[in-house]
Structure formats: structure tokens, C-alpha cells
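User: Here's a chain of 329 residues. Predict its fold as C-alpha cells.
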Amino acid sequence: MKLNQMKLSFSICASLIGFGVIPSMSVSLAQSGWFWQNPLPQGNSLNAVAVLDSDTVTVVGAAGTILRTTDGGATWTLQTSGTTNALNAVSFVDAKTGTAVGVRGTIVRTTDGGATWTTQTSGTTETLNGVSFVDADTGWAVGGSTAYSGTIVRTTNGGATWTPQMSGAVFPLYGVSFLNANIGTAVGGFRGLASTFESIVRTMDGGATWTQQTSGTNSWLYGVSLVDANIGTAVGFFATRFEYRGTIVRTTDGGATWTSQSGATTGLTAVSFVDPNTGTAVGYYGTILLTRRVLRRRKYRHGGRRERDDCPDDRWRCHLDAADEWDDE
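Assistant: Prediction complete.
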């Protein structure tokens, strides 16, 4: 079972990050001899979540913060990450094996459910914003700190070594999603003085080569989720001096074309799909959007059309018409 950043249970993610159950202070106290008393177990900003099942969740954030629950959020345990650098993304492949990445090329890994975390050498000092593992050994981290710095590093030995890849991305990368050891997509972007700019790159060979794609929206993309080799969704935001709005784009042909979808009124930062029809996106100001593919079943007889719920006999020809809808949660 593979788990990328934000594998559903967004109610947990939103209550922690979007709605301020744990307030933002971004302070590291472990080395100073001071300890959090209120709020408990800590008060740093939280940036990303990996959900293994309805009980087991790991959250990472500012000042090297890592929190874990094994009872669906009833209690949270503060884990020792071994770093005070901000952690921006986390990926678990099973209950014990996970990797988190962050600023200054930080990568930490656990093989015992977070009881211990070990620092790894990423080979880059660029900020890492996204991580995706397909098994215990094979994973990618993406990032970049400035324009023209789309960073990708890959491991095939559980992070013992990380190898840089030539992404071809013009701007920093913020999200990455891999289906298997070969097929993956990374997204990112940059905000200039008057507009935003996008980056979409895709590989079919594990990152040996990356191909640039475009959604046509010129949006800064933060998150991406692939469900198969053809279908994927990316989210972000579009901004000018006079306009600011959320972006949702979807591909059904492996990224050859991307189609804009409605429903986003504010910036979105991450997205996850559990199947081609069911997904959740989250963003600024506590935004949570759910999508479902609505199947409208129509009956045709003798040239006429009537809306019906089913097709009870063979004399009627049924037609399924799919429509994507995004709704606020």
C-alpha cells in the first residue's frame, strides 16, 4: 500500500492545519530546555499529513515538528525528528516506513513508525516541498527555492543515497505523485510581480527523462494526484495584480491536455483522489472541496427521452453521462 502526502482523512488535516486547533507559533524549544505547556502537545504550524488508515496519521510542520496518532486523533504523540528545519511534506508506504522532507534539502526517514527518525543526505540545499514513495525503497522529492530551480532527487535504496534528476522544470516544484517506479508527475510554479507561472513535468521512465506539459492556465500549481497512467488532477492558484482565484485542472490523457474545472474560489494547496471519480482538495482559509462524478442515466425509446433511475428491461437503451462537480465541504 502506498501513501503520498495527504491520503485522505482531510477532516483531520483541516482541523489541525486549516482551523487552528494547534495554533501557529513556529518555535523550536527542544534544545533550549523549555517545553510546550499550552497548547499541547505543541504549537508549531503544521504543513502536511500522511494518513495510513482511519486510526494512523502522521503530521509534519515547522521547526522539525512531527506528530503521530494511532487512535484517529484522540491523542497525538510528539516525535523527535532530529532537525529544527521546517518539514513541508511526508509520505508513508506502511505503518512503519515513512519519509519527510523540508527546507535546506532536509530529509528524515523512519522505519519504526516514528519512534526514531534518521537524517539523510539529499545532495541539495534547495527547499524540498513534496515527496512520493511507491515502496520502501523507491521515492522522489521535489522542490526549489527560486525561479529556474525545479529540483528533483530520487532514491532506489530507501534514501541511503539520493540522486539528482534533470527535471527541465522552469520554476520550483511543490507537488509530486508517482503511480509506480516509472510513471509520475510533478507540478509547481512561481509568482511574479503581475502574474503566476506554472510548471508541470512528467516522466514515464522513473525520472531518467522528464517532459514539460502545460495546463494552459498559467497557474502556480501546488498539488497533484494521479490515479492511473491517464487520469490526474492538479490544483493551485492564479493571480494578477487585480485577480486571485483557485485553479483545478484535470487530464485524462496522461497530461497531453489539461482541462480547467470549476469550483475553486480561493487558492488550493493539495489534492488527493482515491479513485477516478472521488477526490478532495484543500487550500487557504480552511477550504475543503469534495468532488464526485455524477452519473446521469437516461432512457431512449422511439426517439424520445426520459430521465429514469434505472433500465429495467432490454427494450430501453441506457446512456451514462458523466459530469464532474466540486462542492464546498
